[in-house]
Structure formats: C-alpha cells, structure tokens
Amino acid sequence: ITAFIAFGIIGYFLIGNASSMGKYLFVTLIALIVASLIGMFIQNPIFHTIITVVGLLLFLLYTLYDFNRMKRGQFSPREMGFNLFINLLHIIKYVLNLANRFKK
Hints:
By secondary structure, the protein is mainly α. The protein has four helices and no strands. The longest helix is centred in the middle third of the chain and has 27 residues, at 45-71.
C-alpha cells in the first residue's frame, strides 16, 4: 500500500505528462494475460514468480498513469475511483502472491 501511495504521489506531482505510457501499459497488460494463460499449463515456479513481479510493476505503473490523468482532468471522479480501486486490488493480490511464493 505504501508503494501505491508513492506511485500516486509521483504520478500526480512529479510527472508532467504520462499520456504516452498508456499504449505501452496496455500492451504489457495483454502480454501478461497471455503469459498467465500459458502459465496455467506450465508448472514452473520461476515463470510464475516473473509473472507476479511483472504484474505488480504493471499495476504500480498504472497507478502512476491514473494519478497523472487525474491531475490533467481526463476522466470523471467515478471512473478515477474505480480505476484506482482495481489497481490497488491487483497490487495487493500480487504482493500476497509474492509473499506466498517466498514463504515456501
């Protein structure tokens, strides 16, 4: 949750315009979905750990991107709340998944 707040502050106060990140984040999201589907058939713990780390970084960057869009007033408060909630939900999921992997 601290990283969520830190990336939000960076996105809102320190980054001028992060609109060019959107297309790269979307492509990375599609690649993550495809890799996750492949991961259902591959039982390699290193592969799953890489997917978890990439997913965590992706949603932290989406948080930065969404806070930057909020600063520029590009979407409604309802959409902003939903996007940030989904980002936080995925970040918590990936952190717990990573903690579970290192516990084993």
